[in-house]
């Protein structure tokens, strides 16, 4: 880990309308989702994970996936992604013209069974079927490895197992990989090691880090990953996207807090922080509750305050 | 910054009853403060900043400084500190038998005038008077440089100015230095640079880093400091200790979140995290509001959950 290894530019990938909204207690109206995505398209983020083409029974909050995907304005230069749990979802996402499909399975067998009702091996078969269906389309395929830094049921996952799964993803025809800290268990030392091992094994294969701030280490994990040259990060506006195992804890790392830290360190993101903060400040009205993101409350470090009037030494 | 430069052991210094409580809306009863400090003494923290011997008009929440300092149990191996704003406070702290006095001024002239109603030069004169008064006693003197990473009125402070002030502290007879990010403006790159510059100039002079999590970067700043070999950190139980310029934002870095991150990275602290978390979970009752600390809500990364019953593949 070293500041010298930092990338010159970081790609910020917004997941608020998918990972952020999926477990919110309140359904966010379709028109509000579309307006939020269109506004995010204007902030300079590199990717937006728009929605998930999943069973409306499993995730009622995203039952409007197809409608949202159809209605958003596609800004050139932004990659619009949908999460897909299976071939059926993939076909719907391709039909909706998504730029990228995000396929996910958990390296932890217990978590994959709980989440997907499939063994990881069976999920991988599904990936191969999706890769076939996507062949000849313009869509790229990203594979997310959930619980890559730990599973709430099984605990730590062996790095070799994670890397072997990443290799299997690439063999199945996927283009890029996300290492996801699904329930916020990663620590910075572990992150640095796994990112370095990934790079050593897979060279320039595009790698995204997906962190949650469940235990307060979200931006420390980003720092550790940057120190190994990582350049793609998922984040959620306002830091929403909590985890069912940690009631009251924070969710995904906050997009505006991430961009603020990168700005302060002189790392280019191409993102307009002011626009992001303004959108984050609108979330409490949309969701009916406060948000974990800090910069929306505190302002930027560079936002100075007027000195108290009449300042002078007492004597 | 590198993991190889990490210290083998980190000293965790608890400031909840001073920095944490000083701007709380509610006065915490003296007996509760004493009980909290006595319980903290049993957790393994290296230092406890017990209180501030300051004018009760300026900080009504700490009007019971002398009573608290007299009544707490002194556990051997723990250093009991009081913040002192002036010679009068220093004399009271010495009389109360504090192990260490913490003297503070802001490197930002505007902030020092606002906070202390003195120029920094005048504050330094006060330091010399306190050093004289403490000579021959067993008390050590720590000097805190407030706004070392930025002032909410003036913005960034030149590292050379900060280091020159640290030199003046040592010349005035102080034993150790704290670089304080008073309003949570520091970023990790800046932290690494300032810690490295401090080490280059002052060698083994004991250095504490005092971070606030106002903009979500608290633990990332700790990581950057560890990467330069820093081994002493202030933190506040529950992460309380907000800043008047950032309503709703988090306060000091949370002691339990700090210890949890260090534990997870294999850095020894000598602190019993379970005891800390249990104390943090008592804070909302004491304060009448929720706390920003995350680990008290989410549990440790290592706290596993039972897998859902009857898990099996769907087909």
From TrEMBL, chains A, B:
UniProt keyword Acetylation, yes or no = no
Species whose genome carries this gene = Ancylobacter amanitiformis
Q: What Enzyme Commission number(s) does the record list for this chain?
A: 4.1.3.4
Q: Which Pfam families match?
A: HMGL-like
- GO molecular-function terms, A-Z: hydroxymethylglutaryl-CoA lyase activity
Name the PROSITE patterns for this protein. PYR_CT
Instruction: Report the family membership.
Output: Belongs to the HMG-CoA lyase family.
Source superkingdom = Bacteria
Question: Where in the numbering of this chain does the Pyruvate carboxyltransferase domain appear?
Answer: 10-277
Q: State the protein's name.
A: Hydroxymethylglutaryl-CoA lyase
Keywords in UniProt for this one?
A: Lyase, Metal-binding
């Amino acid at each position: 880990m070293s500041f010298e290894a930092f990338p010159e530019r970081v790609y910020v990938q917004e997941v608020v309308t998918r990972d952020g909204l999926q477990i919110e207690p309140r359904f966010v109206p379709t028109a509000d989702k579309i307006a939020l995505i269109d506004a995010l398209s204007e902030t300079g983020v590199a990717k937006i994970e728009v929605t998930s083409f999943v069973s409306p029974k499993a995730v009622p909050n995203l039952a409007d996936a197809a409608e949202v995907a159809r209605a958003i304005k596609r800004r050139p230069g932004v990659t619009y992604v949908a999460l897909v749990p299976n071939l059926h979802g993939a076909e719907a996402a391709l039909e909706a013209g998504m730029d990228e499909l995000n396929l996910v399975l958990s390296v932890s067998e217990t978590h994959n069974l709980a989440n997907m009702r499939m063994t990881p091996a069976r999920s991988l078969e599904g990936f191969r079927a999706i890769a076939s269906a996507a062949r000849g389309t313009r869509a790229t395929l990203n594979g997310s490895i959930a619980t890559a830094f730990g599973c709430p049921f099984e605990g730590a996952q062996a790095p070799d197992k994670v890397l072997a799964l990443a290799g299997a993803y690439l063999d199945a025809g996927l283009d890029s990989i996300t290492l996801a800290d699904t329930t916020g268990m990663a620590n910075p030392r572990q992150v640095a090691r796994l990112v370095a091992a990934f790079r050593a094994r897979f060279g320039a294969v595009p790698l995204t880090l997906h962190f949650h701030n469940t235990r307060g280490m979200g931006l420390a994990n980003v720092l550790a990953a940057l120190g190994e040259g990582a350049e793609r990060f998922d984040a959620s506006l306002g830091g929403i996207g909590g985890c069912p195992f940690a009631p009251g804890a924070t969710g995904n790392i906050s997009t505006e807090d991430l961009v603020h830290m990168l700005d302060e360190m002189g790392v280019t993101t191409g993102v307009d922080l002011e626009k992001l903060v303004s959108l984050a400040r609108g979330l409490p009205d949309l969701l009916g509750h406060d948000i974990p993101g800090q910069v929306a409350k505190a302002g930027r470090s560079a936002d100075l305050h007027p000195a108290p009037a009449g300042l002078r030494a007492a004597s």
